[in-house]
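We emphasize that the prediction below concerns an isolated chain of 432 residues; any contacts that depend on oligomerization or on bound cofactors are therefore not represented. The input was used exactly as deposited, without trimming of termini.
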Amino acid sequence: MRLPGTRYQEHGWEQVRKLLGHCSLQACARLGPETLLDPDPEQSLGAYVDAVGHALYAAGARAEAHGNSYGDTCGELALTLVYELHARPADWASLCAAVAAEHARIGSFWSQPGGEALLRKKFNDLYAVLRDKVDSDNYQAACGRPCSPNRMYAYRMLDTAWHEVARLFEGWREHAQQVGAILGREVVAMPIEARQLRTSGDCKPEWIMRWSESLEVHTGAAGPLHTKSKRFASLKNSPEKIGAMLREIGEYELLSANRDQDWLHDAGEASAWLDDYWRVLDESEQGSTPGPDLILEARQDELDAAEPEATIDADPVEAQETARLALVAQQVSLPPNYLVLAALGEDRASWAARRMAQDSLPVRLAVYLKLLGPFDDSYPSEWLDPQTGELPTMQQLAGLDGISLPTLRKRRDAAVAHLNEMAGMEEERRWA
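Result of the prediction step, given as a token string:
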């Protein structure tokens, strides 16, 4: 999930959390866990931050892993969160109090079996709360709207919920009863909602509420909106609020989906232009003749002196091939001059024809047959079979090209894929 100003709400957080837990245990081993029992939390905080900072810098590949879609690494995100503790000493004091309470109950628990896991959990709880505090503050700075850590948690819950609803819709056969409970009707065929649900903005608030209600029946655990916890009390009976939050998530996901691709494309173009510029200058200097510049006598080029040749026949079909092509056309029940007339009738300056110039005429006709159907107002009359008034069938086109039907299908599909690729590239250039 991405929201304005946030950095810790994406899937990379799991790696950041593990890295913080691992390095926190290293710091405690270096300082001694008893440091957390220091009556002066400020002093123990300074020692902890220094020790964790050294551990993070030495973490290697784990710290270099991508932490979010904005380009921050796990190490950078973890270090920023550790330094944030200086600005929020109350969170550190809460951790120390929790460790002290556990120590008063069972003694030096960190040295007992499973003690490291318990100590790691204390740090995980610390940073789980801290990340929502940091992101909620940054969200307020970016949007100018109030946002509490609990609201940030609610955003994350709704993002998880709509993805879970989408997963159930996709596997509606295996989860027909639960999908029916979410949609409020019996499901006997693929629901249209499964195709319509593409972003969080497409998810209806009623689906989230019914999904939460259905969890206790289908999983045995109460859904987030139906627990005794008051964390989501403001959402339980507020579909309008749920819908607004889902739309906000979807709108920002769409807005930030390009991830500076246009800017990066421009930067690459500028870099390539400069590389070409310096290459041309270098080649010009290396190819220059020594000595002063001289004006040489103009000499007539061989091409200028050559006698003009006879105009080349621009017909697409060579004359000597006419007889063979006529025989091939008759074998597939087409007029003898079909290929000649069809080639003459093609607009060879069109966008599609220029992109398929390397393909044979039957392959190009097969492409039009697949994309536009057997008849279209744009087809020249020369392309149509006089007997049917439509394009020749795939079997006829394969015979015209002298290839098997599977081979023609393969070449046709390759040409269609090439057209789609070229269209996509030109669309990107137009919007760049």
